[in-house]
Structures are given as C-alpha cells and as structure tokens.
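Rod shape-determining protein MreD: structure, please.
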Amino acid sequence: MYRLSRLKYVFPVGLFVCLFLDGAISHVWAPLFFHYPYSMASELVLLWLTLAYFFENGIEIPLIPFAVAAGVVADLYNFGILGLYMFLFPCIVGLTTILSKYFSSSFLSMIMIFFIDLVVFMTLNYWAYSLVGVTSADFGDYLIHVLAPTLALNLVYFVVLYWPIRSIFNWATDEKTA
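Here you go.
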C-alpha cells in the first residue's frame, strides 16, 4: 500500500528536508546552539521518523531502510565518514516501535516516547564518543550542558511541528483525494 500512496513521495522529501534543516539550523544558529559550556543538537530527523511511525495511518512505511539511509547521509554530510547515525537511527525506530505497544497514540504519549528516543539517542552517542576518546566530558557535565539543552530544543520542535506534520501525513494518506 505504501507504493500506491502519496507517502511514497512525501515521506522521503520530508526526511531529506529534515536532514538539510538539521545541518542548516545548526550552522545558522551556531552562536546560540554552541555557546560554551552549553551545546544543543537539532534532531529533526528523529522527530520526522518518530512521528512518521505514528502518522502512517495503516500504510507501512519502510522506516528501518529509510532510517539507515538517513543515517548514512547524515554521517557523510556532517562528519565526512560513516559513523553512529547509520546505526542509531534504525535503533531509535525500533525503540519507538517497542514503546508504542505499551502506550496509546495520544499527544502526551508521543511526546514522552520522543523524549525517551532523544535521551537514548544522545546518551548512546555520548557513550560511543567517550569510548573512543572523542569526548572527555564527565557524565554529569554531559547531562547538564548537552542533554538538557538538546531536550529543551527538540521538545519545542515537537510541540511546534506536531500539528503541521500530522496535517501533512493526513493529506498524504487520505485516499479520497488521491
């Protein structure tokens, strides 16, 4: 059913726009996002993937392959080498799938699942970079200076973009106007 719906075009375009905006917003707002000692990461791709799971309306989007592709593009675009994102994005899609089985599809449940997704994503990223010596910040500094600002930024994204994204998905999955 995915290949017959508008989602075939809307979902990848939205994912690409989110990939582009993550980098562009971080670049334009760098003085604000990366003001010592604080650091905020824009994670619009995670928002798009998480909300896509909830808004697909019975049309099964192949989220894992798209998450892998988005991770590869994000790694190459942001870092120039293949890295964590190509593994973490699909893991977060899997985590969203698991968590959604235990909660309803209400706004508050979705924001809670997105919150958990962000915490897991950022913490796995921190641990991996600590393991290979890219970062030397201790865990307390990470929680206060990186995770908290990142959560604040991305939860604002969630609240502001929830209804527009839901409208886009409703339009793309509406069979009456297709």
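Notes: The CA atoms of residues 22 and 42 lie 5 Å apart.
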